[in-house]
Design goal:
Length: 355
């Protein structure tokens, strides 16, 4: 009988047999040797799981190409500017901010967004604030450029944007949210985005984000918008009725689905919600849908219940339908509809109410 000692264990191995008894019953001689070899190997390389974990954590940032010169400008703002971290304001550094804006325009938003996404996940809170400012100032309104080349929005960049907003727990996260929304919707990563928004501690992030889901998500995002609009959060419901107004160049099929849904909110008890629905009908749906709005406004006028904000549907620039062409576009209303609108608006204009 051979005795094999290894650490605190003793193993009795019959010289002419294969079974191992005592502390490790049921192992063959070969299995025992392999076990001891692997045990020693795991001990020697015990540091590897930690290293691999660190690599995985940093992989999203590491897979994104960083423009060193552009990053240097961002870091310069982080040290030179007086920062308001709640509202992502950068003060007393206008010349340095201009350098960032000039480089974004000269090198392009597509090549530089990755660098900002890395800065958004930096440990330096000042640099994260600068990244949020950059996204709000230079990227959120220009994401259409990526629709022609979605591959430029690499997995790493989109991950960085979603993760960066998620990890930014303050109010200022809202200023980076819209760029993250557009990037996620363009690349079809809506589920990850929705999960992040649901978990985020800031209501302002959700309110900002849901209003822009349909810009690039279009009808794919519509079920989510309908879900929010049927919920109990008044603020988010209003945001849901804002989302269709941020979707452009409707097809007839898209218009029909959205318009039929929106008209159901025209008589909602929350008038701020109702006028957002009316704004969709006036400015996107047009035609017979404008008549639905005018009928409801006239009904309330006759009943003596028409008041602010509901009369904004005929007098408010953001909600009423157009009666004049603008930059080549045709009026939204017919001459008859415009006459009805103007008659109602005259009764509720600020000047008329003063008299």
């Amino acid at each position: 009988m051979d005795i094999i000692k290894k650490g605190a264990f003793k193993y009795k191995v019959p010289v002419d047999g294969n079974s191992v008894r005592a502390s490790r019953p049921g192992l063959s001689r070969r299995s025992l040797k392999l076990f001891l070899e692997y045990k020693g190997m795991f001990k020697r390389y015990a540091f590897l799981p930690a290293v691999l974990s660190a690599l995985l954590i940093s992989s999203s940032c590491g897979s994104v190409k960083v423009d060193k010169e552009f990053m240097a400008l961002l870091k310069n703002l982080a040290t030179k500017c007086k920062l308001d971290k709640r509202y992502a304001f950068l003060k007393d550094c206008d010349a340095d901010k201009k350098k960032v804006g000039d480089m974004v325009r000269s090198r392009g938003r597509v090549p530089t967004l990755g660098t900002v996404s890395v800065a958004l996940n930096d440990k330096d809170e000042n640099l994260k604030t600068v990244a949020v400012w950059a996204l709000y100032s230079h990227y959120k309104d220009y994401m259409k450029q990526f629709t022609n080349n979605p591959k430029a929005l690499s997995k790493g960049i989109v991950t960085n944007l979603i993760k960066g907003v998620a990890n930014h727990k303050g109010y200022a996260a809202m200023y980076g949210a819209r760029t993250a929304v557009h990037a996620a919707m363009i690349t079809g990563r809506d589920k990850e985005l929705y999960a992040m928004l649901k978990a985020h501690p800031q209501d302002s992030v959700r309110s900002e984000s849901y209003g822009y889901l349909m810009t690039f998500g279009r009808l794919k995002a519509f079920p989510k918008i309908k879900e929010i609009a049927s919920g109990g959060d008044k603020r988010l419901k209003r945001t849901a009725l804002y989302a269709p107004q941020n979707m452009y160049k409707y097809t007839d099929a898209e218009k029909k689905e959205v318009c039929e849904w929106a008209k159901g909110f025209l008589t909602d008890s929350d008038e701020y919600l109702a006028i957002r629905a009316g704004g969709i009908l006036n400015r996107i749906c047009k035609g017979e849908y404008i008549d639905l709005v005018l009928n409801e406004v006239e009904k309330r006028d006759k009943a003596g219940t028409l008041k602010s904000p509901y009369y904004w549907l005929v007098s408010g620039f953001a909600y009423r339908f157009s009666c004049k062409g603008f930059l080549g576009s045709k009026p939204a209303g017919t001459p008859e509809q415009c006459a009805r609108r103007d008659a109602l608006a005259a009764k509720y204009s600020p000047k008329k109410k003063k008299k």
